[in-house]
Structure formats: structure tokens, C-alpha cells
Write a structure and sequence with these properties.
The protein is 45% helix and 14% strand. The chain contains three helices and four strands; from the N terminus they run ααββαββ. The chain has a four-stranded antiparallel beta sheet with strand order 1-2-4-3, with helices on one face. It is elongated and about 60 Å long.
């Protein structure tokens, strides 16, 4: 039948020790807070209006007057980046094609 080797099991148990779990949770929280702040500042510096709440790792942005989210994504693709359009998040509205969420 196979299965997971004993050394692999022992390694997994060590990773789940309470101190390691706390360390991992803090590292993830810190990383996403840093990314969220960094991207928010970059979006503001680019002239976007940024709407954001506390917690989570999203920023809600309003795109310039004549730009659609799909067009913005196509521009980002050329630089190896992408955004999640509001319509991809079941946030359909009259404005959903003109705004997007940025996952950090």
C-alpha cells in the first residue's frame, strides 16, 4: 500500500510543534501586512484612488476614467503581473469592469 516514511512523519510532527506554528503564523501575517502596505503605497504613487479596510490583504482600486480592468490586466501581463477583476469575485455591478481587487 505504501505510505509516508517514518522520517517524513517525524519531520511533519516537528513542524507542527506549537512554537513552530506560532512562528509560521506570525511570519505569514507579517509578510502579508508588509506586502499590503507596499502595494497600497505604490498604487497611491501611481495616482490610483485606493479604498481599503483593516485586515485581509486586498485593496479596492478605482481605475482612471477610460480604463477597464481587462485592459489594465493586459498591460500588467506584459510585466509578469496580474490583478483579480471585481467581476471575477462575484462583485458584479455597473462599475465592476472599471475596478479590481489586488491580491497581495
Amino acid at each position: 500500500m505504501g505510505g509516508v516514511s517514518h522520517p517524513s512523519q517525524m519531520y511533519a510532527v516537528a513542524l507542527l510543534e506549537p512554537k513552530r506554528v506560532i512562528q509560521a503564523r506570525n511570519a505569514v501575517r507579517s509578510h502579508y501586512a508588509f506586502q499590503r502596505q507596499r502595494y497600497g503605497e505604490a498604487f497611491r504613487a501611481l495616482g490610483f484612488t485606493v479604498y481599503t479596510g483593516s485586515g485581509g490583504f486586498y485593496h479596492w482600486l478605482e481605475l482612471p476614467e477610460n480604463m477597464m480592468a481587462t485592459e489594465f490586466n493586459n498591460r500588467l501581463f506584459k510585466r509578469g503581473a496580474a490583478v483579480l477583476c471585481a467581476s471575477d469575485c462575484d462583485m458584479v455591478s455597473e462599475r465592476s469592469e472599471r475596478a479590481f481587487w489586488k491580491i497581495e
